[in-house]
Design brief:
The chain is 37% helix and 26% strand. It is an alpha+beta fold and 316 residues long. It has two domains: 6-47 and 192-314, Efflux pump adaptor protein, beta barrel domain (Elongation Factor Tu (Ef-tu), domain 3), CATH 2.40.30.170; 57-180, Helix Hairpins, CATH 1.10.287.620. The radius of gyration is 43 Å and the shape is rod-shaped. Residues 160-187 form a coiled coil.
């Protein structure tokens, strides 16, 4: 190792780091019913990786919402038929009342003529007058009844409007119930490899998530570089990564340099090491061969050696 080399502890990680697979929002106290993957499986984003035990309850809610929707649909059909029949009956009643009123008016006119010539009695005249008034009142009543159906369109009738709104509410409830069903499915947030599973059937998903995933198709390393050495580090510089668990040295290049200073998170086996050191995190992108090897060692602690003399390769 040359004096110009910058050395720091690092850990191997998938591109984008580790993703923690959490149960869906609103799952509540649901337990794991079935885990559909095993560690090492490669899954695509959105694929179901586990099923929770609230599925039966949520499916029952869908069946109930579907039944309610069917009732509302039938109610709307029935309401339309009732309104249409009632309007037709009101029209028929008005026509009949007008016919009776017309006959009563004509009868009263004849009775008045007979009374003027002294041919009929006062009692007969009074009866004709009462009949005409009663017929007129019947017409007014029939007109008032028909006025409830002022619009010729059945869909514009108040009862039909109410039934239509109830149907829309039932449709919305069914849509909500179907959307809620996703709360029983745990899906992969990314495309990648299942690294670790934290819960089994019958258990509640722990706070750290149901499982861990990562895109191990492209591995990286996160190195912690002491703040007094970071000025020597540049993007593109070659990096060697070594660890006793590896049978070879991994190769990579500096990809990004952090913008903040923090406490050291990786601790050396050296008891004399400064555990309160201030470091800056440097991301190292491994070459293809090294990435393939590192894919089996997520979170493995390694030692990173950055060759700061190699300025030519620092160019992108």
């Amino acid at each position: 190792m040359r004096a110009s080399d910058v050395v720091g502890l690092a850990r191997l990680m998938p591109r984008g780091d580790i993703s923690y697979v959490a149960p869906p929002y609103g799952a509540g106290d649901a337990r794991v019913a079935e885990v559909l993957v095993t560690e090492g499986d490669v899954v695509t984003r959105g694929a179901m990786v586990a099923r929770l035990d609230n599925q039966a309850q949520l499916e029952s809610a869908i069946l109930l919402a579907e039944a309610n929707l069917a009732v509302r649909q039938a109610s709307l059909v029935q309401t339309r038929a009732v309104v249409a029949n009632s309007r037709n009956e009101a029209l028929a009643s008005l026509a009949q009342a007008r016919a009776v009123a017309s006959e009563a008016t004509a009868s009263l006119s004849r009775t008045n003529d007979l009374s003027a010539h002294g041919v009929t009695t006062q009692s007969a005249l009074d009866t004709a007058i009462a009949a005409e008034r009663q017929a007129t009142a019947a017409v007014e009543k029939a007109e008032a009844t028909l006025a409830r159906y002022a619009s010729a369109k059945v869909e514009d009738q108040p009862d039909v409007i109410v039934a239509s709104r109830n149907l829309e509410a039932a449709e919305a409830e069914l849509a909500r119930a179907r959307n809620d069903l996703v709360r029983s499915a745990v899906v992969a947030p990314i495309s990648g490899t299942v690294l670790n599973i934290h819960a089994r059937p019958g258990q509640r998903p722990p706070t750290e998530g149901l499982m861990e995933m990562g895109d191990t198709s492209r591995m990286m390393a996160e190195a912690e570089i002491y703040q007094d050495r970071i000025s020597l580090v540049e993007i593109g510089q070659p990096v060697e990564l070594v660890a006793t668990a590896l049978n070879r040295t991994l190769q990579g290049r500096v990809a990004t340099i952090g913008l903040t200073v923090g406490r050291q998170g990786l601790l050396s086996d050296d008891t004399a090491a400064n555990t309160d050191a201030r470091v800056i995190r440097v991301m190292v992108e491994l070459d293809e061969a090294s990435s393939t090897i590192a894919a089996r060692f997520t979170n493995l602690e390694v030692i990173a050696r950055i060759d700061t003399d190699n300025q030519a390769s620092a160019q992108p």
